[in-house]
Amino acid sequence: MKLGNREYNLKTDAVLLLQKGNHSVYWIGTDSEAVLRNNIYLIKDGDEGMVVDCGSRDDFKSTLSRIRQIMPIRNINRLFINHQDPDVSSGMVDWLKLNPNIEVITSPNINVLIKHYGVGDYKYFNTQRNPSLTFKSGEILDFIPSPFMHSPGAVTIYHRTLKTLFSGDIWAAIAMEWDLIVKGDFDEHIESMDFFHTDYIASNKASRNFLINFKDKEVNNIFPQHGSIITKKNVKKAMRYLRDLKCGTDFFKEISDEELSFMN
Ligand SMILES: [Fe+2]
Ligand SMILES: [Fe+2]
Fold first, then answer.
1. Ligand 2 centroid vs 205 CA: distance in angstroms?
2. Residue 37: helix, strand or coil by DSSP?
3. Structural contact between residues 225 and 173, judged by C-beta atoms closer than 8 angstroms
4. CA of residue 251 relative to chain centroid, distance
5. pLDDT at position 3, please?
6. d(CA 52, CA 210)
7. Ligand 2 center to residue 57 CA distance, Å?
């Protein structure tokens, strides 16, 4: 794949996505060929690194080898965890084994669950108590909760200056054929997003409650945890997709009091 002036091999390479001075964002993998592949990202700020959506334990080896292309592993000092699912968070077990000083950033609702990976104590950054994080460079991340999208405690990252949203499972896509960035027809991409959203996202109400966060925020890129990255030309279409999404409990049948009268 060609991006900027560079040709990348997605099987092995870390891909530089965004850069502003000594602050940059990379795609770190995965090399899995499963239909539900994990996107792992790295935010590098000077000599410090934060892994976003650290992926599953199976991804750990390839994550390390790709990060080594960019910076020493010992300089990774933060892990961000969108929610507790193993595909997005179980890699924390290996990260904390390697470096117990890594700070884990997530919501309190997720933190009580990921403790059950049996990792003992770790430094915890509570996104509810501290809704933003400022890097040494002055770049700022805002943590935006996305309840029931799909986990009750899920939390996304909005990168304030790069106007980029690390959306976790929101705008995730499932497909055999896959491009790092949505290039062609967005309607075709919608089909791959439907495979995920119909079953995994709670409801249209939850989707709209998430979307309202972006009333006054410009979004230039969406970096989901599965499937292709969505760039500016498709962001509006992606938002309209969520606005109109029918999923999860939208398909539930209304159950009347009468039907439940067996409890009386
Ligand atoms: Fe998930
Ligand atoms: Fe996921």
1. 20
2. coil
3. no
4. 26
5. 84
6. 20
7. 14
Strand-strand pairing, 2-3 and 6-7: antiparallel
Read off the amino acid at residue 68.
Answer: R
The Å distance, Cα 174 to ligand 2 centre, comes to: 10
Q: What is the pLDDT of residues 27-39, one digit of tens each?
A: 998 888 888 899 9
CA of 21 to the centre of ligand 2 (A): 31
Q: Does domain 2-251 have CATH number 3.60.15.10?
A: yes
Long-range contacts of 88-91 (CB under 8 A, 24+ apart): 88/38, 88/53, 88/54, 88/55, 88/56, 88/168, 88/169, 88/225, 89/54, 89/114, 89/117, 90/55, 90/56, 90/57, 90/117, 91/40, 91/54, 91/55, 91/56, 91/57, 91/59, 91/60, 91/63
Peptide bond into 150 cis (omega under 30): yes
Residue 29, pLDDT score: 86
- 228-251 pLDDT, tens digit per residue, is 999 999 999 999 999 999 999 999
**How far does residue 87's CA lie from ligand 2's centre (Å)?**
6
Gap from CA of 89 to ligand 1 centroid (Å): 9
Query: pLDDT by residue (tens digit) across 33-91?
Result: 888 899 999 999 999 999 999 999 999 999 999 999 999 999 999 999 999 999 999 99
Q: What is the pTM of this model?
A: 0.96
Span from the CA of 33 to the centroid of ligand 2 (angstroms) = 15
CA of 56 to the centre of ligand 2 (A): 10
Q: How far is the CA of 38 from the centre of ligand 1 (A)?
A: 10
Task: Give the number of whichever ligand sits closest to the CA of residue 201.
Answer: 1
Q: Would you kindly state where each structural domain of the chain is located, as residue ranges?
A: 2-251
Residues 186 and 134: their CA atoms lie apart, in Å, by 34
